[in-house]
Fold mRNA export factor.
Amino acid sequence: MSIFGGGTSSFGQSTVFGQGTTQTAQNMNPMKDFEVTSPPDDSVSCLKFSPGVLPSTFLIAGSWDNNVRCWEVQQNGQTVPKAQQTHTGPVLDVDWSDDGTKVFTASCDKTAKMWDLNSNQCTQVAQHDAPIKTVNWIKAPNYSCLMTGSWDKTLKFWDTRTANPILSITLPERVYCADVKYPMAVVGTSGRGIIIYQLENQPQEFKRMESPLKYQSRCMSIFLDKKTNAPTGFALGSIEGRVGIQYVNPTNPKDNFTFKCHRSNGSTGGMQDIYPVNDISFHPVHGTLATVGSDGRFSFWDKDARTKLKTSEVFDQPITCCNFNAQGNIFAYASSYDWSKGHEGYDPQKMKPHVFLRSCFEELKPSTKRA
């Protein structure tokens, strides 16, 4: 049974996307955004919208409750739960195939699966010796494959029709984050390592570097050149409330810079409270970006003007992940406990996971100021 049945409406940029309503505590949804119905039961690790080739808009979420969920997002902002699939361990990452018919999922159970949304069937397509942290679909002119990054210190590339990887690369350390925008892939490892791959013809290493940030890498997202639409660099977030903007081949060394975010004034002696940057997502139309953090806020930024566009009110728990839909008019983000304050910081009565949808096209427009 296909999950694609029923409703073919797609979001237009001119859609009047109203404010959601909530009867719950104000700081659970301080921005009054739409709540996704039937959210995950445990911390939300990843969110990913369907590609723009589909007539409808779908949202996938992976969670520490071992499940992957799919919703259809309707024109009025309401969400319809469509289906879910299960791993035997927490789901750490998800990605879509380029044609929108399949979803790939990576789990602590050391496997990656392919979820065929037309048949609603799931099959294992990758295996590692440790949890799989990242999963990215690569669509090249002459090949397609799945890239998985694991805590077993390998990066593997899979033809999803065969049991063995078509390529396996041994890394110096565990994979913590990765992103793919053909023809570029970037992988961040523990020990602040960064490896850039070029994907033309076949994946091969292009460049190694050390993170521009002094602390552990947490998330990364590739950005595109505004004129050529080719991948030209990436943003990297760390556990220390800082983001690095890094060009692969900077025309000027000053093009690369870092900025502070997800920090708040501490209660004692003018010290700042510093929080991890949990996720970064670039707007598909404007090229601006969103960051979300353990401080319970999301922020919108213009990297070219080097300015902040907006910061949200504070939520009652961390914001763990985010994503923009293909048209760039919906911003999805999840609030859930991220264990940054350990077991003693968790209150199961209060800390229920939530996924929110926000109308965002105007808010993400580039600043009129220039750097």
Observations:
- The mean pLDDT is 91.
- The two ends are 52 Å apart (CA to CA).
- The first strand starts at residue 34 and ends at 35.
- The CA atoms of residues 30 and 60 lie 23 Å apart.
